[in-house]
Automatic annotation (TrEMBL):
InterPro entries: YiaA-like, YiaAB
Span of domain YiaAB two helix: 14-66
Pfam family of the protein (one): YiaAB
Keyword tags: Membrane, Transmembrane, Transmembrane helix
Keyword Membrane: yes
Protein name as it appears in the record: YiaA/YiaB family inner membrane protein
Amino acid sequence: MNDAPVRQQSTTAFYGQAVASFSVALAATGIGILRLEASAWIRGFLAIAVLYLVTSAFTLAKVIRDRQEAGQLVSRVDQARLEKLLAEHDPFDKV
């Protein structure tokens, strides 16, 4: 049976790029909202909308990751069962 753990597939550079990209996008949006020539109510509404969008995106990413990890676990259990059946099977044994 294969006991190897599921490997992390993203590199440190990819993680760093994702964090930097998120930070730049959030900062640019915040600066854009602050410099917008509109009333404080409109800028406040846009800021709350951006925060809601960010938290929703994080939640969606977590749900997708959790589903994928659950699918991998089920797949690994099925693979282990198949390997056990194949190991116990004797093709020359009479039925």
